[in-house]
Amino acid sequence: MGRRPDSRSVGRSDGMLRLPSFRYLRPTTLSEALRMKSDAGPEGTYVAGGTDLYPNMKRRQQEPKTVISLMGVPELKATVGTVLGAGLTLSELSVLQSFRRSYPAVVQAATLVSTPLLRNMGTLGGNLCLDTRCNYYDQTYEWRKAIDFCMKKDGHICWVAPSSPRCWAVTSSDIAPVMVALGAEYLLAGPAGERVVPAARFYNNDGINYLTKQPDEVLVEVRLPPPAARGAWDAVYHKLRRRGSFDFPVLGVAAWVRWEGEGEGDGDRVADARVVLGGVASWPQEIPEAATALRGSTLAPEAIAAAADAAYRPAKPMDNTDFDLSWRKQMTRVYVTRALTELAHRRSTTT
Asked: Fewer Cβ atoms within 10 Å of its own Cβ: the N or the C terminal residue of the chain?
């Protein structure tokens, strides 16, 4: 095949590429947006902040004829209690004082997305629905044409795993692993009405069909679990990337624990836990074996090491993002250890 693409240069020419011609619509209500999408059919698509769609359109990865903006729909901005409107920008989300106190892991993940400028544009819903990424996909049209395209767009072969019947592009969302770890739910609205989907069931482990959301549905809101009363549960998110900003995650670790009781010190044990990995598969990958290693423990170093080993074994990063894949797999153990150690430290300093 020749030289492997340098992931550090992927998409760097976006600023020199031009958007194709398209019709732009700006509804003011959710029902109007749904009607516009129905009229546009398969050639129409929704857009929120556009930080994902527009670069993809420049590279001809997505080619809608009609683009329907959701940024003028007030229903998508509503935030009440534990419900977050999907139209909130990441910057707006990060400064919500109530959520900074009650859901610091969500805010932490939001502030780690890209740069301040793009966080001012990008939305919560957009990040949760972010396209999967791959070095052989996130290139210009001419580059992709030179290798006869790839399975994800216009081709028939996954260049990461040529004998595979499926696409191995990886999830690139920072917030999605946190939502899966917290057990959040998503409200979707479409022509057939509304439905609520657990965050874990919103994603498929397939680089092309990576969402269970239908194309004509809109992600309206995210419903979070009740805030942790007296430290009943806690969560954290850690991200690996080459630079301290801008870059997509090549590994994300979201860890959540629920404590058995309200006791103090070493009497506190883990009643339940979730460890979710981002950037190593086409979906936020929950690791049940890691949770099993933590239940009943006090998050002592031995239990943390066992959970980190459990997360390391099923993590199978492919050679389609930044860094060497074997090193990224090793970092799974390191970052799970760091995330759980932070939770243990926070517990010990608050009880």
From this structure: N
Listed in sequence order, the residues at least 6 apart from 229 whose beta carbon sits closer than 8 Å to its beta carbon are: none
Neighbour-count burial for 281-291, b at 16+ CB within 10 Å, e otherwise: bbbbbbbeebb
> What pTM value is reported for the model?
0.93
Nearest CA to 250 out of 326, 348, 161 is that of 326
Enter the tokens of residue 184. Answer: 């959040």
Stated as kind and residue range, the H or E segment containing 68 is: strand 66-69
Q: Measure the CA–CA gap between 245 and 111, rounded to whole angstroms.
A: 10
Helix or strand or coil: residue 23?
A: strand
Residue 32, SS3? helix
Residue 318 and residue 294 in contact, taking contact as beta carbons nearer than 8 Å:
no
Question: For residue 176, what are the CA distances in angstroms to 109, 113, 126, 196?
Answer: 9, 12, 10, 16
DSSP 61: S
- Which domains are assigned to the chain? 16-74 (3.30.43.10), 229-350 (3.30.390.50)
Give the single-character DSSP code of 283.
Answer: S
Q: Which long-range contacts (CB under 8 A, 24 or more apart) does 211-217 make?
A: 211/129, 213/129, 213/188, 214/188, 214/190, 215/42, 215/45, 216/34, 216/37, 216/38, 216/190, 216/191, 217/188, 217/189, 217/190
From residue 284, alpha-carbon distances to 76, 107, 190, 206, 328 in Å are: 24, 18, 24, 11, 16
Per-residue pLDDT of the chain (351 residues; tens, 9 = 90+): 444 555 444 444 455 799 999 999 999 999 999 999 999 999 999 999 999 999 999 999 999 999 999 999 999 999 998 999 999 999 999 998 888 889 999 999 999 999 999 999 999 999 999 999 999 999 999 999 999 999 999 999 999 999 999 999 999 999 999 999 999 999 999 999 999 999 999 999 999 999 999 999 999 999 999 998 767 999 999 999 999 999 999 999 999 999 997 544 445 899 999 999 999 999 999 999 999 999 999 999 999 999 999 999 999 898 899 999 999 999 999 999 999 999 999 998 876
Amino acid at 112: L
> Rounded distance, CA 348 to CA 167, Å?
43
